[in-house]
Write a structure and sequence with these properties.
The chain is α/β, with parallel strands linked by helices. 30% of the residues lie in helices and 24% in strands. Strand 16 and strand 17 form a beta hairpin.
């Protein structure tokens, strides 16, 4: 059977009917395919019938489309069953013969590589992936951050007068961060925040902090207990910074607790006579807020709902071009209107992910320099520490917070890390190239969020 990813086909029958076919065998003089239904005219060339084939080009990572109608069609009776019919197509079309021979040679080369080499060296042969660097790991996540951020602070070239219209927010996404904030004045906390991340010398460390994010977008277990959350909100209010409460996905058994928390936050808004911004990453929670009629919340679409293709390994994909990934469904006017009119979404979260995404009109936040690539509800770090295998994942209850001092490390050249229940990539250019943030602001961005894990 020919892999559908490298060769697919459509059969155009009479009266404009189009059927997708499954190709089983390929040769320079024809191919075999199967269909659920019997076709007429077997054994002859039907002038009203044609085939469109899509051949994958291994060199350009694109498909070559070819349509032809000069062929002979016969039923392969001995291989047919009650569930499908098999057919053999033969043709002398020179363009078909050239495309079929080329695909067969390229696929045979790929199969030979897969049988002789591991995945890394197959990728090295086909895409230039540096497989020889895979054995170079950092000593720890802290030493990795130190190397990344010290270099970024040394080479940064920011012109902050042009960023004066943009808010700066700090993400406090784990207990140690928000516990330090509860014990330190804002000025001391921000100095400590930049120092712990080796960015004291970076121009960003001199910009006034306008907002603080409390909570984690990816792991629901990394969320302040309600009493601690109220203390965090009160302290932010006293220090004249905007508090933002960050939610992850909501599991079904947590719906009742989530509803109680929303009631407590609504009461806090009423007591302080002010709205509260919530970052929401679950459609169910958005529906819950809508059904309960809360008008005191300003809603931000979180990064788990503002999906986009992002991965540190994309540059090693053949045919990769950042311009192909700039737009998502968020650019569609009807979708923007739906979010605004139905859910009252006030802001959309973006991530700096190795290329500059196109920003939808309206408020926008840019999370940097890390961006999420993958998130698991069943924490792989817990599975590795508790069950001996990151693949042996189960629902976590009574989390011992292994992520306080443990992470998954990856080869240094990949610029990625496994933190909490997620994989993150590091966008090294956003901390050194001022145009990355300037283009975000020019596109409509109003806030940048330091997400330093």
């Amino acid at each position: 059977m020919i892999p559908f990813a490298i060769l697919s086909g459509m059969l155009h029958t009479s009266y404009g009917i189009i059927r997708e076919i499954r190709l089983l065998e390929l040769s320079p003089d024809g191919f075999t395919f199967r269909l659920a239904n019997l076709l007429p005219h077997s054994g002859s060339c039907d002038s009203q019938m044609s085939f469109t084939l899509h051949f994958y080009d291994f060199q350009t990572s694109h498909y070559l489309e070819f349509t032809f109608s000069d062929f002979l069609l016969e039923t392969v009776t001995e291989s047919s069953t009650d569930f499908y019919m098999m057919y053999r197509v033969t043709t002398e079309n020179p363009q078909y013969r050239a495309l079929a021979a080329r695909l067969a040679a390229e696929y045979l080369k790929y199969v030979e590589l897969k049988s002789e080499l591991d995945d890394a060296h197959v990728s090295q042969t086909l895409t230039g992936y540096p497989a020889d660097l895979e054995d170079r790991y950092p000593e720890s996540f802290d030493t990795q951050k130190q190397a990344w951020f010290t270099e970024a602070a040394r080479t940064a070239d920011f012109s902050f007068p042009k960023l004066s219209s943009c808010e700066l927010a700090l993400s406090l996404d784990h207990p140690s961060a928000w516990n330090r904030y509860l014990t330190l004045p804002l000025s001391d906390f921000t100095a400590d925040f930049w120092s712990r991340n080796y960015l004291t010398a970076h121009p960003l460390a001199r910009k006034e902090v306008n907002c603080l994010y409390f909570g984690n977008q990816f792991c629901h277990l990394l969320f302040p207990e309600p009493p601690a959350l109220i203390r965090l909100l009160d302290k932010a209010l006293r220090e004249n910074v905007t508090p933002v409460v960050v939610f992850s996905y909501v599991q079904e058994h947590r719906l009742e607790a989530c509803g109680s928390l929303l009631e407590a936050l609504a009461a806090w808004c009423l007591e302080n006579d002010r709205p509260l911004e919530l970052v929401v990453n679950d459609w169910g929670m958005l529906s819950m807020i809508l059904e309960r009629g809360y008008s005191c919340f300003r809603l931000t679409l979180g990064v788990l709902l503002a999906k986009r293709r992002k991965d540190v390994r994309l540059p090693y994909k053949r045919g990769f071009s950042p311009k192909d990934y700039k737009e998502t469904s968020l650019q569609a006017p009807f979708y923007q209107e739906y979010l605004r009119e139905h859910f009252h979404i006030d802001r959309i979260s973006y991530e700096s992910c190795g290329y500059s995404p196109r920003i939808a009109p309206g408020n926008a936040s840019l999370h940097f320099p890390f961006y999420q690539m993958n998130t698991s509800q069943f924490c792989p770090l817990f599975a590795a520490c508790q069950n001996g295998s990151r693949g042996n994942q189960r629902a976590v209850s009574g989390c011992p917070e292994y992520c306080r001092d443990r992470t998954f490390l990856y080869p240094e050249f990949l610029h990625m890390v496994g933190r909490y229940n997620s994989l993150f990539g590091y966008d090294k250019d956003v901390l050194t190239d001022p145009e990355r943030i300037r283009s975000f602001i020019a596109g409509g961005g109003r806030r940048i969020v330091a997400e330093l894990l």
